[in-house]
């Protein structure tokens, strides 16, 4: 059975797309069939996975708004075993167009029904907002992975996101689980980073991944080369971190979900 994971945080710049792309690449290297669905109008996941935007004929916008089949949109990435349903700039207007649609929160879930079974994992890269695109992802997903930068307002942002999760659970997807909270851009030399990490672990407990994604120049460079960090520099600490994260995700998929947050 396929597992659908939404990767979301309404705050931008927390490593959301970096996590989606590199988790997808790591799972593919672990010989899992992976589909990445780019729901962010900026299309950074699309380009970071090695998809050339000029090659995009059918996008996630077409799947959501025009009723195109996901199988018509998917393209191969730079990593064998990782396919991508790309985004395009038209997705920026999708929120308004979705508002006028019947059952607007479940469009993505219905679209993924058939194609998801061709994959072991489907990863949904959400935009940095809690609008209809993200709600569609949370409604379609089995679980939510939350990247969190170790900064001052991290807990406040997590609180807002968890309220949205509860709303989705109550009316749209009662079984939505928390895949895990992932601490990103961590620098152990920074007192604030350490304090925020400790606070999040104290509050959320086992819902927080053991793996921490470090602040790493290689992770920042890889997208400009149109490649996941595992294809750009597999020896980097960033690559090692995402390989460790993947081990946790695979372990949880085998043993069961983390405690409900």
Given helix and strand content, the structural type is alpha/beta
Major sheet description: 8 strands, mixed
The shape is globular
Give the name of the CATH superfamily: P-loop containing nucleotide triphosphate hydrolases
Q: Could you tell me the mean pLDDT?
A: 93
β-strand number: 8
Number of helices: 12
Strand fraction equals 15-25%
Distance between the ends: 24 Å
CATH class: Alpha Beta
Kindly report the spatial arrangement of strands forming the biggest sheet: 3-4-2-5-1-6-7-8
Report on this model:
The protein is of the alpha/beta class. The protein has a single domain (3-255), classed as Rossmann fold, CATH 3.40.50. The protein is 43% helix and 17% strand. The protein has helices spanning 16-29, 44-48, 60-65, 70-73, 94-99, 107-115, 132-140, 154-171, 191-204, 217-221, 229-232, 237-255, and strands at 3-7, 34-38, 75-76, 82-85, 121-125, 143-149, 177-186, 208-214. The chain has an eight-stranded mixed beta sheet with strand order 3-4-2-5-1-6-7-8, sandwiched between helices. Strand 3 (75-76) and strand 4 (82-85) form a beta hairpin. Helix 6 crosses helix 7. The model has no long low-confidence stretch (mean pLDDT 93).
